[in-house]
Amino acid sequence: MRPDRFRHFAAIDWSGAAGERHAGIAMAICATGDAAPELVRPAHRWSRPEVLDWLLHHLPPDTLVGMDLGISLPFVDRGAFLPGWAESPPDARSLWALIDRLCHEDGHLAVSSFVDHPQASPHFRRHGGREGAAFGGGRGRFRVTERAQERMGCKPYSNFNLVGAAQVGKSSLSGMRLLHGLQGRIPVWPVDLLPPHGPVICEIYTTIAAMAAGRPAGRSKIRHGADLDAALHALRSQPALHHGPIDDHRSDAILTAAWLRRAAPDPALWHPAGMTDEIAQTEGWTFGAC
């Protein structure tokens, strides 16, 4: 695959919050060139199923889509996603299917039935001081790609952690339901091989994009239009011209779409040194982590 074959670049800031519609979901898209990414339906409050519909029915051809979520759970550290459970899946796609099957009655791509399941719940840190015996203590279990993020200066969180403002567990799990809902119609890198044409979805970590734009990891969130335009300039993008305050969900989506446009042609990012075939099929990888 030629990594320069993409013609559009989209970034989705995702949410695992309860409810139907979420201020925390934002999408931005840009084409090749240097025009600033534009928000998709900027005045709309998205639901998670609506994002799935947009991906399936409204995505431009040859679009690279970055989703700000973990596409899988740790596997390599213990040789299983959920050790001790006979139904623990062997790979990422099977994990997505299991989560969706157990949560089929949970509306809005929610995942409460999975994290409350008697065989799954011991692996999670949940609200109310409920830390399962298999959580592992400390910051919890990490994927290999999250260790790579740490070496870059990021501070990732375990997808088994469901507590705290920075937790990513429920957003990642609900994202896995969305990925299952694609039914293979859009490849998900690196679980799937990169096709020679058509759209591709990858996992992103918006802090990596902010760091590439010159912002320190601890100040990756942008909440003012002038700061967003300065970061876009560092990525050789025209300004977005959002005057005054902007919420960080929208700025994350805009900046990361611009970063994907610059990063996607780099062949090394598609072949990270720490990613084996087993890791690709089980844990996946964060695009840009090296």
Low-confidence stretches: none
Which class best fits the helix and strand makeup? alpha/beta
Biggest sheet features: 6 strands, mixed
| Helix share, percent | 25-40%
| Spatial order of strands in the largest sheet | 4-3-1-6-10-9
The ordered H/E elements are EEEEEHEHHEEHHEEHHHH
Helical region count? 9
* Beta-strand percentage range: 5-15%
Protein name: DUF429 domain-containing protein
How would you describe this structure to a colleague?
The mean pLDDT is 95. The longest helix is centred in the last third of the chain and has 16 residues, at 248-263. This protein folds into 2 domains: 8-71 and 182-270; 92-181, no CATH class. It is globular, with a radius of gyration of 18 Å. It is of the alpha/beta class. The chain has helices at residues 48-57, 92-102, 112-115, 144-152, 169-181, 206-212, 225-234, 248-263, 277-282; strands at residues 8-13, 21-22, 26-31, 38-39, 46-47, 63-68, 125-126, 130-131, 188-189, 200-203. This is DUF429 domain-containing protein.
List the SSEs and their pairings:
Blueprint: E1 8-13, E2 21-22, E3 26-31, E4 38-39, E5 46-47, H1 48-57, E6 63-68, H2 92-102, H3 112-115, E7 125-126, E8 130-131, H4 144-152, H5 169-181, E9 188-189, E10 200-203, H6 206-212, H7 225-234, H8 248-263, H9 277-282
Parallel strand pairs: 1-6, 6-10, 9-10
Antiparallel strand pairs: 1-3, 2-5, 3-4, 7-8
Helix pairs in contact: 2-5, 6-8, 7-8
